[in-house]
Amino acid sequence: MQDAYLRARQSWHTFDRVGDARKWLFAICRNSFLSGLRRGRRVVHSDDGDLDALDAVKEHNVAKAQGLADVYERLDVLPAIHRAIDELPEPHHSILVLVDLEELSYEEASEVLGIPRGTVRSRLFRARRMIQASLLAHAHDLGLARGASPETADA
């Protein structure tokens, strides 16, 4: 009803003052209702709330149908991320896990590790750069990255 009255107010200039206002409002209500039904057909209801991934799933299925499924396998970076995290040297590995994976604050991580907060911040910065370098090397290995090689990227 609110939508119908809003539309009526916006369309007041279309109302024929000689005509029946009730019929005019019913027509607006009906049209508003039908518009809502049409919009509702385009909405996909999902129990898990992961609607953002639907477009990606559709694109993946289209690519598979076109014989491009290997592209998605090459783009799966999760194993590379796990490998990069596992290869971090110990002080950086612990800080990255505590702050980025366990979602501890800098303050909480500094208490757990018994080091100053500034040290947590600087080691976390370096750990993230090491992860980036590792993922850049992975992209180069797959032929996905262009430009500087990972060895010259730090120079």
Structural features, described:
With 155 residues, the protein is an all-alpha fold. It contains nine helices and no strands. It has helices spanning 2-10, 21-41, 54-65, 69-75, 78-86, 90-101, 106-113, 117-142, 150-153. The protein is elongated and about 80 Å long. The termini are far apart. The model has no long low-confidence stretch (mean pLDDT 76).
In short:
With 155 residues, the protein is an all-alpha fold. Helix content is 70%, strand content 0%. The protein starts with a helix and ends with a helix.
Search tags:
155 residues; 70% helix; 0% strand; mainly alpha; elongated; 9 helices
Shape descriptor reads: elongated
Low-confidence stretches: none
* Number of strand segments: 0
Radius of gyration: 28 Å
Q: What number is the mean pLDDT? A: 76
Percent range for β-strand residues: under 5%
> Could you give the distance between the termini?
65 Å
Summing up helix and strand content along with how strands pair, one would put the structural category as: mainly alpha
Sheet with the most strands? none
> What share of residues is helical?
55-70%
Treating each run of at least 4 consecutive H or I residues as one helix, how many helices? 9
Query: SSE order in H/E notation?
Result: HHHHHHHHH
